Amino acid sequence: MRRLLCLLFFVLALPATAAGLLDSRPSSTLGSINNSADFLPVREAFQLSLVESTPQSIKLRFVATEGYYLYRHRFQFRTDPPDAGLGAAQLPKGEQKHDEYFGDVEVYHGILEVELPRTDQRAFTLVVTYQGCADKGLCYPPETERLSIDGSAGAPPAWSWRELALFFLAGIGLTFTPCVLPMLPILSGVVLRGQVGGLRGFNLSLAYVLPMAACFALLGALMGMFGAQLNLQARLQSAWVLVPFAMFFALFALAMFGVFELKLPHAISSRLDRIAGRTEGGSLWGAAVLGVVSSLLVSPCVSAPLAGALLYISASGDALGGGLKLFMLGLGMGAPLLLVATGGAAWLPKSGPWLVYVKNAIGVLLLGLAIGLLSRVLPGQITLLLIGLLAGGVGLFMGALEFVYKPPRKRLGQLLGMFLLFYALACWYGAFSGQTDLLNPIGQPRTVAGNEQPQNTSAWQTVSTPADLDRVLAEAKFSGTPLLLDWYADWCISCKVIEHKVLNDAKVVELLKGYRLIRFDITASNAEQRALLDRYKLFGPPALMFFGKDGVEHADVRVIGEINATDFAERVVKANDRI
User: Fold this and answer.
1) Cβ-count burial of 204 within 10 angstroms (0-12 exposed, 13-18 middle, 19+ buried)?
2) If we measure between CA atoms, which residue out of 244, 42, 215 comes closest to residue 131?
3) How far apart are CA 53 and CA 550, in angstroms?
4) Where are its TM segments located (predicted)?
5) How many angstroms separate the CA atoms of 401 and 393, rounded?
């Protein structure tokens, strides 16, 4: 659903271009309020489904919920029996993520599709292992799922009623783009011959809208079939695809700015105009012909949003679903015409200067989308430079440096332009300084706090089996010693952060005097260890649990996810008050 919502926002001139550009580093402050309710169970955070199974290949889809991501290097695919023919998994390039302890890794946010080639048609069980983390700092142990595969399995429908409703809303949004809105009064005049209202107006407008939507449905069905054969989704991470599409969106952005006009070739447009001119208005047949012609006339005008819809449909590989989605898109585009036919032109906003502002805004968003696509193949510093150029250009266009008298509304725009210009300067400075973060382009040097000291690792006892943990818990209870239990794994980035920056803090070390310090190593993530997670109602590391002298956990001060030293010290103080 995440890709569909992004598509809807783009169609309505609100694309979320920045999401693909940011490096999601877990926040060290979120742990102060984290608890079990803050995180989803692993199979809700990461949803695996079998999209398609044919004698030639198997297609899987992973959906990481917003705020969660999967590691590329942690995927494993094997078969039961082991000799079942299965080729190497085709994984697209992931997002680069750097960690000071693990180095450079690749991760996936949102939707990921994986294709596995097959070399025979025997039925077998596909064993899929994956691992992911939450942006808040919780790392899940590796998860394994088993899928039954046979040669006759097919792909489930790649559409739902919710998706169809969203495409319908997207079509309504397309109607109010500057190139379509002025056509509505003209089309209503030709189709209805100036006679609006009543059952006749509704029938004529419906006869116009349905053929127009049918043309879009045919295009969607063809793209669904085309995408399934070409497997566009697996190739979208290639520079050979991303760069041309980025140029495509940049070209349409220039058209929005009025640099040139996009329209059909004269030979085609003149013929369509002649057909429309000879068509008799006021009849159902004439309305239907005009609907088909209008779909050809309007499509080039909204080609950029329509291209995004077609990309989404081609990725699904579903001809029926693609046809239904674009049919709903066409119905959405025709819905305002139905309102005009039944209620008159008073339903529609008047044309005016605001259309120019809408065109310019759409152009800026199209350029942002182009940069977003290029960010997947360009270094982070270059992306920051491009974002700075875009922000600076918009700021200058809004009059950031025009120090003359302006009316209040334009002064507000100038203030926003000055902010964008300042942000552009920050992006340029950060890019030349080696930064890549759009939200913090200047960055800040890492400082070593004066109260940090080398950790006394000998104070920590590491266990890795439930029996050993039960034993040390019983010993602490018998001796009346409070205990701190740290859940740790080598593959857990946030565990490393807590180990070096939190448990190593001088104040925390002082407050933990008198505690028995136990670290449970769940790196292996075997069945026994996973059962232990269920016993304590944990999803995975990191987690910190306080046990009193009586051996009972103080659940209200439990820490799940990453936390900073200051907030953790407050938890320790609260736990000490109960000892």
Assistant:
1) buried
2) 42
3) 55
4) 164-192, 204-227, 239-262, 283-314, 326-348, 360-378, 384-405, 412-431
5) 12
- 3-state class (DSSP) for residue 550: coil
- Per run of 10 residues, the mean pLDDT along the chain (length 579 residues) is 42 37 38 60 89 84 90 91 83 82 81 86 88 86 88 55 83 69 53 56 77 80 61 51 77 76 61 53 64 60 57 64 83 78 56 69 80 77 90 88 78 87 91 80 55 56 93 93 91 80 91 94 83 80 91 88 89 87
Q: State the CB neighbour count (10 A cutoff) for residue 268.
A: 13
C-alpha to C-alpha distance for 116 and 474, rounded to whole angstroms? 49
| Final residue of a structural domain among 351, 372, 398 | 351
| Entry pTM | 0.42
Helix, strand, coil percentages in the chain from 3-state DSSP, rounded to 5: 50, 15, 30
Contact 224, 314 (CB under 8 A): yes
Here the tokens at position 9 are 């926002």
* One domain, residues 178 and 303: yes
> Are residues 369 and 383 located together in one domain of the fold?
yes
Considering only CA atoms, which of 529, 557, 525, 536 is closest in space to residue 132?
525
d(CA 169, CA 176): 12
How big is the CA angle at 149 (ends 317 and 315), to the nearest 5 degrees?
15
Of 111, 140, 134, the closest CA to residue 49 belongs to 111
Torsion of CA 276, 282, 288, 294, to 10 degrees: 40
383 and 260, same structural domain? no
Report the distance separating Cα 345 and Cα 359, nearest Å.
23
DSSP for 325-387 reads HHHHHHHHHHHHHHHHHHH-GGGSPPPSTHHHHHHHHHHHHHHHHHHHHHTTTS-HHHHHHHH
- Mapping DSSP onto H, E and C, the string for 28-78 reads CCHHHCCCHHHCCCHHHHEEEEEEEECCCEEEEEEEECCCEEEEHHHCEEE
Q: Do 271 and 389 reside in the same domain of the chain? A: no
d(Cα 260, Cα 258) in Å, to the nearest integer?
Answer: 5
